[in-house]
Specification:
This protein is mainly alpha-helical and 342 residues long. 58% of the residues lie in helices and 1% in strands. The protein is built from 10 helices and 2 strands. Strands 1-2 form a two-stranded antiparallel sheet. It is globular, with a radius of gyration of 25 Å. It starts with 48 loop residues before the first helix and ends in a 7-residue tail after the last strand.
């Protein structure tokens, strides 16, 4: 009998109602609480070993891509020139670069972008999450960052030419300059993006995924990935190594403070593109020569201008409400609030 004031009971008791059967839901591959870009792989559905495997496969892919595309470049160079394959290979061993082998190197680095997307899938998240904390590339934001970075690098080139003199740049129309110029414009953005996705994206996140403290994880991920970024350039000059490490830290900072790789890719692309636009009019045979003595303290000016551009980009990100926390986590039918502020 129901108590007074209670509606009459209808239907069998709850313990007699058959419950739907099925396996327990899988842990979410996305963070269950708001995370910044470096620590975005700290999710219940991502076991510790998956980022490790992704890094190992990323390293293998880096070397395999370089070998395969590099070999193809040697074959093409030998076919279009009067030299044999072995002669071309020997020249490459002495860091003598041709337009074809230069472009082949850039293509091999560009292939790291789809590789990183695949490795992100292996970890458990769709490829778009490796681009930003909103699950995709923010193209308008990327173009804004590129414009700011382009002005900074162009200012560097203008100062350099003003100090050295235009006549001392060694510029001239060289055979095949036009197709090399087109090649540089086409492949350089992919080359820069490939390095960013593999180093600032995959490696940085893999390191930070083991560090519970978000700031410590972001710093350690930035330091270790910047060291790797420095070593893969193979420079024997202290000033060049300072440049590569500092740029790696700067790009990592941009990814952390803007919630994605767009700013880092934009600045990396602008830096490489402005510099490489002069390559078709220069002797590029030793463009990869990074032995001791090839750098000098003037690299500090480059780092200073890029640092100013980075400050402008971070401030613009705040004013434009560029999301640096994600993803929106559904909790009890509503979205969990995203942390704000610095």
């Amino acid at each position: 009998m129901p108590r007074p004031g209670q509606p009459p009971h209808e239907g069998p008791p709850a313990w007699l109602v058959p419950q739907p059967w099925g396996p327990p839901p899988k842990p979410s591959p996305l963070p269950v609480e708001a995370r910044e870009y470096p620590t975005f792989w700290q999710a219940p559905g991502i076991p510790w070993w998956k980022p490790v495997v992704a890094v190992v496969l990323g390293a293998v892919g880096f070397f395999v891509s370089g070998l395969v595309i590099g070999f193809a470049g040697l074959v093409v160079e030998a076919a279009v020139s009067d030299r044999g394959f072995l002669e071309v290979a020997q020249e490459l061993g002495t860091l003598t670069i041709t337009p074809i082998t230069f472009l082949a190197n850039s293509v091999s680095l560009g292939l790291l972008v789809p590789l990183t997307f695949l490795l992100s899938r292996l970890v458990g998240q769709k490829g778009g999450w490796i681009s930003s904390v909103v699950g995709g590339i923010r193209w308008r934001w990327l173009l804004q960052c590129f414009g700011i970075s382009f002005v900074a690098v162009a200012a560097l080139i203008a100062v350099t030419i003003a100090l050295d003199g235009w006549e001392n740049q060694g510029l001239a129309f060289r055979p095949g300059w036009w197709w090399l110029l087109i090649g540089v414009i086409v492949v350089t953005p992919f080359q820069a993006a490939g390095e960013e996705y593999l180093i600032r994206g995959l490696l940085n996140r893999a390191v930070a995924s083991f560090i519970p403290a978000r700031v410590v994880g972001a710093i350690l991920g930035a330091v270790l990935s910047s060291i790797v970024f420095m070593f893969i350039h193979g420079a024997g000059d202290i000033w060049l190594n300072i440049t590569y490490f500092s740029m790696g830290m700067l790009f990592s900072y941009l990814a952390w403070r803007t919630g994605g790789l767009e700013a880092a890719v934009a600045m990396h692309t602008a830096n490489n593109l402005v510099v490489m636009l002069f390559l078709p009019f220069q002797d590029i045979s030793e463009v990869f020569n990074r032995e001791a003595g090839t750098g000098d303290p003037t690299v500090l000016l480059q780092l200073a201008l890029l640092g100013i551009a980075a400050v402008i980009i971070v401030r613009l990100a705040r004013r434009s409400s560029i999301e640096r926390w994600g993803p929106p986590v559904i909790v009890g039918g509503g979205a969990a609030p995203m942390p704000r502020g610095r």
